[in-house]
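EI: anyone free to look at a 243-residue chain?
SC: sure, send it
EI:
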Amino acid sequence: MKIYLAGSGWDKIWRGDNFYNFNRLETFWAISKHEAKVIHKYKNFMLDSGAFSMFGGEETDLNEYVNKYIKFIKEYNVKHFFELDIYQVIGKEKTDVINKRIEKETGRQTIPVFHIFLGTEHFKQLCEEYKYIAISASGMYHSKWTRQRPEKLKKLIDYAHTRKVKVHGLGYTKMSTLNQMPFDSVDSTSWIGGNRFGLAYEWNGNKMIKHQKRNGQRVKTNEVARHNFYEWVKFNNYAEQKY
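SC: here you go
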C-alpha cells in the first residue's frame, strides 16, 4: 500500500536532497508554480482536481476551470489524476460529461471517485471501465459509512481486485484498521497535525504514536512539521512492504 502525503504550502519550509523521495498528492486548486515544475521528481504523484473547493472560492467559470485542468495535465505529463468529483454540485449526468471530455482531451483515464449514494452497481460498472478507482473514505459527510461499515468497504475493495482494478482510499489513514483494508493506495493530511495542533508523530517500527504538547509548552511549528514529515515517510516505507 502506498501512502500519499497531502496538504499545501508546507513544502516551502525545507527541501533536502532526498526531499522528493515520497508519494505526494496535491490539489490542482492549490498547487504552486514551483510544485508543478517538480512533479516528475516525486516517487509517485497524484493530482486531485480541487473542483469541489473551486465552487467555494472566487473561481466561478466551470468550463474555464476544466480547460485549465486539461492543459495542466498535458503540460506536466500527470499520469494519475482524479476526475472532477462534483456529483453533489451539478449532478451525475453533467459530471460524467465533463469527465469524459477530460479523458478524451488528455488521452488518459481519470481516477473516478465512488460515493455510496451512487450505488453498488455503479461501483461495479467503474470496475469494468477503469484500471484505478477511488473511494471517498475520509469518514466525513457521505463517507461516514466507510468507518461505520468497514466490512462493506472491504467487500468493495476485494471485488475491485477480482477485476484487477486498483483502489485508492481518499482521506483514509485510520490507523486501527489501515492494515486490514487492502487499499492499493491512500492519502492523508493527518501528518500535518504538528502544524495544526502541536502534535509530534513517532513511527516506532510497528505503529504511529502521537505525542501531545504539554500545557503551556511552546511548539516550533516548522521543526515539528519537518520531523512529522520524515516519520510519515518511514510509515509509508513500512506500509509499502507490509500492507
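EI: Residues 221-242 form the longest helix (22 residues).
SC: 👍
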